[in-house]
Amino acid sequence: MSSTRPRVLLLFGGRSSEHPVSCVTAAGVMRAIDREKYDVVPVGITRSGAWTLVDGNVDSFRLDTGEVPEVTGGGAEVRLGPSGTEAARDVIASTPAGAVSELGAIDVVFPLLHGAYGEDGTLQGMLELGQIPYVGSGVAASAMGMDKHFMKVVFEAAGLNVGPYTVITDKEWRRDPEAALASCESLVRPLFVKPSRAGSSVGITRVDVGDDLRAAIEAARVHDPKVVVEQGIVGREIECGVLEGRGALPARASLPGEIVVAPGDHGFYDFEAKYVDGAAARTSCPADLTEEQTAQIRELAVTAFDSLGAEGLSRVDFFLTPEGEWIINEINTMPGFTPISMYPQMWAATGLEYPELIDELIQLALQRSTGLR
Predict the structure, then answer these.
(1) Would residue 323 show up in a list of annotated catalytic residues for this protein?
(2) 178 is in an annotated binding site
(3) DSSP H/E element including 261
(4) Any binding-site annotation on 329?
(5) CATH code of the domain occupying 7-134
(6) Mean pLDDT, the chain, as a whole number?
(7) For residue range 216-254, what is the model confidence (pLDDT) as tens digits?
(8) Active site residue 200
(9) pTM of this structure
């Protein structure tokens, strides 16, 4: 690490369907990060995968302007030095006119990327090859945390309570769609049909009695050829934030928060309810739970975090049934991270405000080695 301010490469945008959410997340972090403590290099990834230098003006990265925020090309393209060399941390920019400039070495990457090609272990693998520290989970935990199928397998092995579900792979659907549909018959409707490796509720359809399951599967397959079909769970949606412990200390769990979807056009907490329709849902933080229930979910959230070998941060989502049973829904290894997102809200309620949370995550990354650990 350099003797002056640590240099942070803030990476956002990306090739996934969650590109706009990543832009909004980056805007929140850029507004709050301590510029006196950190030298920030904002780099956006276009939908085509080009890395481009961003001037730091985040006013356009909002979801309430009527336009979807997006990283566009046209500026200086950015690349890192060759992997496996001392120059792997060097940031090199080239303009459309062909001028090349070296912007210096970075100390850590903060990958504010949601979805495929960013949150799923692919970027983490590239950074590992370059021995570049980064915020968040490593390759294996990121990959499993992105795949709703494999995360459920890990959770079940850890003794966590997982709701009924089935998985439809691409080959199964192309080979015999009728058999794939038949595999869902044991599940009680409503069903939730989801792309296995997408987030932010993109591509999810609620299927009630009489609805077309086939159409819902095809809609999910637009985003991912592997589909997870889950049986609906009756219960409150409670979430808990987890933060890696310093050194050998155990992971820390926040106070939980609750998502309450208002009656109306949204049958569940979909993309519109999360990011566009401000009246569609509300968050309650801390959630209205007993002390025993709060202790239970915090312990379960850390168990889920540890079962994947997660690092840095995660948000773990549960259902609390009317019978008092906790059923895990999923883990997000790079959760929504705007100032009003649930993860920062939960940590603020626990006593760690947004700027301090950003600082803690960067410090955790700087203190953690790359490679096997």
Answers:
(1) no
(2) no
(3) strand 257-261
(4) yes
(5) 3.40.50.20
(6) 91
(7) 999 999 999 999 999 999 999 999 999 999 999 999 999
(8) yes
(9) 0.90
